[in-house]
Design brief:
about 325 residues, 5-stranded mixed sheet, alpha/beta, D-Maltodextrin-Binding Protein, domain 2
Length: about 325
């Protein structure tokens, strides 16, 4: 080896040594367990998707993908932890409409929902469904709107909390139809559903996955689902778009992301495996049993989706003058 070749090789070696440790390890990723932080307590859609995808990715990469539940602050605590983590692929977030859709629209957050993360891959989502108590004398959306106009502020609707999707979609309906209802905010979708079943509230716009068992039991009457088309699990229920409400495309979505500045090659590697898993029949069936439809996207498409979702809810919050206490 010539002197020039020797110096060149030495310089290259020193260059590698000066790289951050996470960057040096990329070629062999993953060499240790990967953590997927779920910003909720165990149970529910977010936790289900995190564990399902963790299992699939673990098998694909031959390494453990461990779900770490970090609840609190409506997903803020978990999101902040991931935003501060090293962008080495060993700390991921199961982000969802709350952390990267509605929260940025209604709250001042300690993290940047767009620039503080690397979108990797969308997993899927479930539409929202407008439901009323069976005792309410309405059977269609048109009748419901007429009833609201005839009884302003006499009905109340429940939500999973201030600023959640279940709150904002109903506010969107009130805005579009020029109707009024009293908002009853709960700490989670469970208590909100219980009060609807008990008759304390008369309407809700929950995610289909949460509402479906009660709809099937005849304890909730579905009037419409968000989105452009009917849902295969409720083929008799019209979509909001079908009824003339084109902008009602709210979705309880779930996706995998990491800290900002993750290496491009690693992002593409993860995205490919996520989309490969979403293409398998058994995974689609597993998610479909929870009313979740797969939504495969490229990292760029996922990033654009997040930005669009934040923009949409931010506009609604501004027009409705919705203020959320921090």
């Amino acid at each position: 080896m010539t002197r020039r070749q020797t110096l060149k090789a030495l310089a290259a070696g020193l260059g590698i040594l000066t790289l951050p440790r996470w960057a040096q390890a990329q070629a062999a990723w993953p060499t240790r367990p990967v953590k997927i932080i779920a910003p909720v307590a165990p149970g529910g859609g977010v936790d289900l998707v995190a564990r399902t995808m963790g299992d699939r990715l673990g098998k694909a990469f031959g390494q453990n993908f461990i779900v770490d539940n970090q609840s609190g602050g409506g997903g803020i605590i978990a999101s902040q932890a991931v935003a501060k983590a090293a962008p080495d692929g060993y700390t991921l977030l199961l982000g969802y409409v709350g952390t990267h859709g509605t929260n940025p629209a209604v709250r001042k957050l300690p993290y940047d929902a767009i620039n503080g993360f690397t979108p990797i891959g969308m997993v899927g989502g479930t539409p929202n469904v407008l439901v009323v108590t069976p005792t309410l004398p309405v059977n269609t959306l048109k009748e419901f709107i007429a009833h609201l106009k005839a009884h302003p502020d006499k009905l109340s609707y429940g939500s999973a909390g201030q600023g959640t999707l279940t709150h904002l979609v109903m506010e969107q309906l009130k805005e579009e139809t020029k109707t009024t209802m009293v908002h009853a905010a709960y700490r989670g979708i469970g208590p909100a559903i219980l009060d609807l079943l008990g008759g304390q509230t008369q309407a809700m716009f929950p995610g289909l996955a949460a509402a479906l068992p009660h709809i099937k039991a005849g304890k909730m009457r579905p009037l419409a689902v968000t989105g452009a088309s009917r849902h295969r699990l409720l083929p008799e229920v019209p979509s909001m778009a079908e009824l003339g409400f084109k902008a009602f495309d709210g979705v309880q979505w779930y996706g995998i992301m990491g800290p900002a500045n993750m290496p491009r090659a690693l992002v593409l590697q993860l995205n490919a495996e996520i989309n490969r898993a979403l293409a398998t029949a058994d995974l689609r069936e597993k998610l479909a049993s929870e009313a979740l439809e797969t939504m495969p996207m490229s990292p760029e498409q996922f990033a654009a989706y997040i930005k669009s979702d934040i923009d949409k809810w931010s506009q609604l919050v501004k027009s409705r003058n919705i203020e959320i206490e921090q």
